[in-house]
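Technical appendix A lists one of the benchmark inputs used to test multi-chain prediction within the project. The record comprises two sequence entries:
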Amino acid sequence: MSSWILLILVVVVALWLVGAYNGLVSLKNQTVNAFKQIDVQLKRRHDLVPNLVNAVRGAMEFEKGTLEAVIQARNQAVKVNAAGPDAVKQISQAENALSAALSRLMVVVEQYPQLKATGNIGQLQEELTSTENKVAFARQLYNDTATLYNTRQQQFPTSLVAGLAHAQPATLWEVEDRTDRDVPQVDLSMKPKS
Amino acid sequence: MTDETSLNLFQQQETNRRRTFWLLCGFVLFMGWLGFGGDYIYALSTAHAPAPEQHHVWWFGIVMLALGAMLAGYAYRTGPDKVLWATGAAEVLDPVDDKQRQLVNVVEEMAIAAGVPRPRIWIVPDSDPNAFATGTDPTHAHVAVTQGLLDLCTRDELQAVIGHELGHIKNLDVRLMTTLAALVGAVLLMRDGASRLFLFGGSGSSGGSSRKKSDLGPLVLVLVVVWVLSWILAPIITQLLALAVSRTREYQADAMSAQFTRNPLALASALQKIEAADAPTTHIKGGTAHMCIADPLGRHLTTREGLVADVLATHPPMAKRVAILRGMGYAQLKQAGGAAS
């Protein structure tokens, strides 16, 4: 009788082990995939920035500094991105700087009605808004998935299997505080997202 | 996204898969009942007749079962195409104006937020604001919005509405709802055909059947009544099913939209705008009503909850949906305020 109970217990534990292990592996792959999505969107943004700068360059002779800042931030971001996914912190720092430079440029564009009237600035603005949103949403998905993965591997009793599944805490993409936009600086205190 | 919501998502997907399967099975079995029931009644009524006139081979049942299986398979496979065709939607392949370009961008953004492939995008030429999603799974999915929605909503509101539709796609609501819509269509078509059949068949043999009826016992009479009733009630039952499955789903999709956009107030204001534009969506007929973000028929049942509304409305009361979204928005604002201070 007691041997039966033991057997059932062993089977239950084994089943749970398999489930927990597979759950962790699946979450790990989702996290990696979500990170690749950010990468795709960042590449799109890097390709868009030169077009944007060219479109406004003619009308903005006297705003050279703003344009230069955007180009510099873009080139820096491209350079850091080549380092690969291990440098999450540096990449997010460079991308946040680019975001800040771009939003400053858009504020400047708003101040020149003649610029908005000429050509397809409205269309470019839409493209830029969309690109920024895509980067933000890709980041959101990555952070959500990574948080889920981190929580799962730290929680008992899944934490017992974490070593077996080679689970490592994934680095979250740093979220910049909106008030710090003028001084591109990374806010290291993670804001809890609901 | 917490642990619970991801678990919920998995459960919802499972539920939707299972329900679609049972819906299709139920449909085939129901068709079998219509067929074999008819055979049985016919066999009983000819039991006392000379041998060559007796009903031995149950052709009607076999044909109906095969027809049911074929229709179920056909409805599952071509459901999305049929739904889109029925609403007169046109696919956006190359965006021609700013609004369409914005729509394509917004759908791409929400697909990224939801972590699903970009669905195909359609526009329904109707001035009443509404939207729906269809498809069998996230890789074969479609999102359709009316021209009225494009004209009425701001970028954020459009984003929230698309987020709601992608919620339906991600938790596989679309599979169940599309299959149901296609089956409702098939049953309605069958009813039209059957009523014609009964009219012609009935007038031809009315003299003979009244004589035979005296041979039948009361049990068989009950069977006959139930059988005829199921023919008549089939379209009503399928439509009631369509109503029942869609209501709780709307709350879930609203919550998913808020999760994707992190902006529940945008969906609240979009829903209010859609509600305020009271005109019925003329391009969307009864069979696909349960798929839309708001009841396209402009029925006032959705304005309150209660027994009648519970049975007949396809959508939960708009005021309640808006109130829930508002609550999420304020909770979010409070949290953000708390973190900043």
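The two ends of chain B are 24 Å apart (CA to CA). Chain B touches chain A through 25 residues (CB under 8 Å). Comparable benchmark entries are summarised in Table A2.
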